[in-house]
Each structure stands twice: as structure tokens, then as C-alpha cells.
Write a structure and sequence with these properties.
Blueprint: E1 2-7, E2 15-21, E3 26-32, H1 34-42, E4 49-54, H2 69-95, E5 99-103, H3 105-108, H4 114-121, E6 126-128, H5 137-151
Parallel strand pairs: 1-4, 3-6, 4-5
Antiparallel strand pairs: 1-2, 2-3
Amino acid sequence: MVIIGIDPAMRKNGFALCLHDTTDNSIDFLVMEFTDFIFYVTSLPEGEYQFCVENSNLQNLSFDMRGNKNIVARKSRNVGMNQAVSQLTCDYLKKCNYKVIELSPKQKGEKMTKETAKVLLSQFSEVNNYKGLVSDQDKRDAFKLVLLAISGKY
């Protein structure tokens, strides 16, 4: 079985995936755009997959309203785009008959620090495509989704 955590965002390289192969206890990270994600899913080899997706569309809260009207409008557009792409991701995976766990940002919880990720990742047999940089936050978010799927505590 492969458990895949997905932190989707509608921006360049906005899809962070964390793949946990339960047969060898390895972790691999991928970053791509939405259209590449569609092709990725269609090319998955035969096997058992479970997806855990942060679906921001499940959380219907107001976003940060600070700033002038142009800033607020930009934030609103970004939130709406991310809500749409995360819902589309879940819908697509279900249409492909995959097991999908959908978690709201609140259910996913706070951001994981790079120090915490380093400790948690050391428990896996192999970790690929992760450097632990500040810019790897999307990967850490996808990793957290994998951990939540493994634990069943969501």
C-alpha cells in the first residue's frame, strides 16, 4: 500500500505530494502543478493507494481581511482558487475510485517545523527529495497528512 498526502494549491508548483510506501517504509516527496498531478494519477502503476488531501473547501471561514481593497481582493481570489483546486483534487481521486481522506486545514492542524519533521522523518527507512529547507513547508504539510492517515486520528 502507498499512502499519499497531498497539500494542493493553485500556483506554480503548488501540489506537494508525500508518498509513503508501507512495504519498505520509505518516504518520497514530489512537487508539481495541478495538470501534472492529473497525468501523475493516471500513470500510477497497479496497486493499492490511499490519499489524504487537505481540502480547504471544507473550512468555510473568512480569510485575513487586513490590507487595502486590492490586497483583500487578491487574498480572496487566492483562497477561492485553493478551495476549488483542493475540492477538484478530491473529486477527481474519488472518480478514479481511490480511497480518499479529506481533511480541512483545521483538522490538519498547525504547521510542522523543519526540526520536528527532521525527527519524524528519521523513523523511515529512506527519505527522498527533501532537504529540510524553509521553502519545503508544502512538503512538510503533505508529510503531516501522511502521518495523520497512518495514525487514523483525524
